[in-house]
Write a structure and sequence with these properties.
Blueprint (H helix, E strand, L loop, with lengths): L4 E7 L11 H10 L4 E6 H4 L3 H13 L4 E6 L5 H12 L4 E6 L1 H4 L6 H14 L2 E4 L10 H10 L5 E3 L12 H8 L5 E4 L10 H9 L4 E2 L10 H9 L4 H15 L14
Parallel strand pairs: 1-2, 2-3, 3-4, 4-5, 5-6, 6-7, 7-8
Helix pairs in contact: 4-6, 8-9
The structure holds zinc ion.
C-alpha cells in the first residue's frame, strides 16, 4: 500500500448528516480513498465551539491509529485556545493548530490574531493550517502570506490551494510571486482542484515541495481526490512528495505515525 497522508479532514457535525463524521465513519471514507494517515479537526470548533469541538475530536482521534488531530484555536476564545494549544504540545496525537477566520468570524490580520500567534501559537512550536479563500475578506491568500511572513519560525499550510472554489484561480500564484516563503505549504482539498490544470499551475509556481494532499472529508467525498492525484500530469517524484513527504515537512509531528512513513 502506498503512503497517502491527508492533511485536511474533519470530525463532527456539519449542515447535514452525510457531511458529518465520527472517527469510524471518517476512517471508512478515508480508507475508501486509499488514505493511510489523516489529520482531522473539529467542524464545530471552527464556528467557535472550541471546548466541545476539540474535546470530541481528540476523543475520536485517540481511538483511531490512522488519525492525528489539530486543535482549533480562536482569538476571541483566548483562554480556551491557550489551554488547548498548550495541552496539545504534550499530546502526541496533536500535530498542529487549525484556524478558520471565515467560519469563526475574525480577520486573520487582526491584532487579536497577532496576539494569539505571538503569545500562544508561535511559542508552542506547532504548525498552523488555516482556511484560505478568495470568497472571504477575512483570509485571502495575500493576508495569510503576510501573517506567515511575520512568524518565520512557524510552519503554515494554506488550505484549498490558497483560493477555494470561487474567484480567480491564479490569485495564490500571484501572491506567491510577490511573497514566496520557506515556511508555507498548500493543501489541495478543494473542488477547484478538479478544474483542469489548477494543481499543476500552482505546482509550477510554488514548486513540488509545497503542495500537500488534502480532501476536506467528510464535506467532500475523499476518493476522487486520490484518483486526481494518481492521474495528474506531473512527475512520479512530485506525486510522492504530494502524497506524503511534503506533509511530513509541513507537520514534523507526523513522523513515526502509523501509515505516515514514506516508502523507501
Ligand atoms: Zn476544511
Amino acid at each position: 500500500m502506498q503512503t497517502l497522508v491527508d492533511v485536511h479532514c474533519h470530525l463532527g457535525q456539519s449542515v447535514r448528516g452525510s457531511m458529518s463524521a465520527d472517527g469510524e465513519r471518517l476512517c471508512a471514507l478515508l480508507r475508501q480513498a486509499g488514505v493511510t494517515h489523516a489529520v482531522a479537526f473539529s467542524i464545530e470548533a471552527c464556528y467557535g465551539g472550541i471546548d466541545i469541538g476539540n474535546a470530541y475530536t481528540l476523543g475520536e482521534v485517540e481511538r483511531h491509529e490512522m488519525l492525528s488531530a489539530m486543535v482549533v484555536a480562536h482569538p476571541h476564545h483566548r483562554a480556551s485556545s491557550e489551554r488547548w494549544v498548550n495541552d496539545g504540545v504534550s499530546n502526541p496525537d496533536v500535530v498542529g493548530v487549525k484556524l478558520h477566520p471565515a467560519l469563526g468570524q475574525y480577520d486573520v490580520a487582526s491584532s487579536a490574531v497577532m496576539r494569539l500567534m505571538d503569545e500562544v501559537v508561535a511559542p508552542s512550536g506547532l504548525s498552523v493550517l488555516s482556511h484560505v479563500g478568495n470568497e472571504t475578506s477575512q483570509v485571502p491568500i495575500d493576508k495569510y502570506l503576510e501573517l506567515a511572513s511575520r512568524f518565520p519560525g512557524v510552519r503554515f499550510i494554506a488550505a484549498h490551494l490558497g483560493v477555494g472554489v470561487l474567484g480567480i484561480r491564479e490569485r495564490s500564484i500571484d501572491a506567491w510571486v510577490d511573497k514566496p516563503l520557506e515556511n508555507v505549504w498548500f493543501d489541495m482539498g478543494t473542488l477547484r482542484a478538479f478544474t483542469t490544470g489548477a494543481v499543476e499551475g500552482l505546482l509550477d509556481a510554488v514548486d513540488e515541495d509545497r503542495i500537500c494532499f488534502g480532501t476536506d472529508a467528510p464535506l467532500y467525498v475523499p476518493a476522487p481526490f486520490s484518483r486526481l492525484l494518481e492521474t495528474l500530469d506531473i512527475s512520479e517524484e512530485a506525486r510522492r512528495k504530494i502524497a506524503c513527504r511534503n506533509a511530513l515537512a509541513a507537520l514534523p509531528r507526523l513522523a513515526g505515525k502509523a501509515g505516515a512513513s514514506p516508502q523507501a
